[in-house]
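Anyone up for a design puzzle?
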């Protein structure tokens, strides 16, 4: 089974390894506002990989996942690579996973009203067709977590859709199972994060079908796919201090960039500041037990 690059996403490179496996490589690329930024964050890919592996290892009681191995020596034993393939560059940032049929929706769970959900709430009084109480403030905790799916766009912007739209596009009962598993994963992770002094404001999951069984795929609960807030500095109505790429978004918002032309390069202090936040997230999450 020889590796073959089949897709380069915003952050991850995907290699086919025969009919059974894929190799997912987390790069140091960083994206924001649907653009891949021209400046990488050295070490980011390895940090994302470690965080995902931690959560995959902790959530198996809720749902199975696609992980086969993240050890390079084991991966090299299972697959072959083209001559001259640089395995060392992948060490710490690669996962060999089972190949499955992807469910083409991003499965977002929100415990707090922020980001695109906040903007939609201000316009419509709810998110993805779910009505919310009037008078909520930005970053306020919701009465209970809500499941708000989006379309899955490899390029461009994901679009919020109602649960009914998702259910109509999938086999009977599948959307309900995905919603149930997504909410259970969020609740588990939010409780763990709370012990680490972190608020899990929202996150997104991806799922696939393997031999007819629903499994968790892609990444899980990283600063790229989640909003992690510092619980000690959290305050309703403000933009909370975070351990995710909101730091990059904030810099871009203040840079004068129009979000249409190619994005500007990140200053070194923003690169290092971003890396530090990802490192803090890894440390706090893994040390919480």
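Challenge accepted. My sequence:
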């Amino acid at each position: 089974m020889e590796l073959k690059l089949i897709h380069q996403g915003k952050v991850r490179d995907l290699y086919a390894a025969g009919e059974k496996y894929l190799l997912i490589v987390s790069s140091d690329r960083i994206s924001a506002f649907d653009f891949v930024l021209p400046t990488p964050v050295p070490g980011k890919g390895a940090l994302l990989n470690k965080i995902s592996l931690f959560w995959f290892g902790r959530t198996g009681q809720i749902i199975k996942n696609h992980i086969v191995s993240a050890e390079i020596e084991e991966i090299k034993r299972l697959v072959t690579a083209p001559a001259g393939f640089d395995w060392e560059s992948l060490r710490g940032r690669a996962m060999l996973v089972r190949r499955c049929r992807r469910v083409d929706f991003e499965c977002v769970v929100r415990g707090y009203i922020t980001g695109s959900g906040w903007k939609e709430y201000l316009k419509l009084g709810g998110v993805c067709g779910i009505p919310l109480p009037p008078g909520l403030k930005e970053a306020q905790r919701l009465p209970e977590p809500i499941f708000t799916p989006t379309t899955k766009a490899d390029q461009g912007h994901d679009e919020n859709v109602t649960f009914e739209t998702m259910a109509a596009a999938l086999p009977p009962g599948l959307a309900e199972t995905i919603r149930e598993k997504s909410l259970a994963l969020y609740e588990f992770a939010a409780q763990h994060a709370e012990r680490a002094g972190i608020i899990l404001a929202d996150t997104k999951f991806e799922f696939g079908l393997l031999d007819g069984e629903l499994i968790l795929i892609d990444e899980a609960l990283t600063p790229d796919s989640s909003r992690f807030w510092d619980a000690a500095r959290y305050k309703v109505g403000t933009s909370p201090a975070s351990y995710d790429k909101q730091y990059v978004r904030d810099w871009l918002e203040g840079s004068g960039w129009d979000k249409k032309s190619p994005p500007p390069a990140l200053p070194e202090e923003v690169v290092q500041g971003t890396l530090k936040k990802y490192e803090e997230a890894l440390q706090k999450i893994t040390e919480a037990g």
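A detail worth pointing out: The two ends are 37 Å apart (CA to CA).
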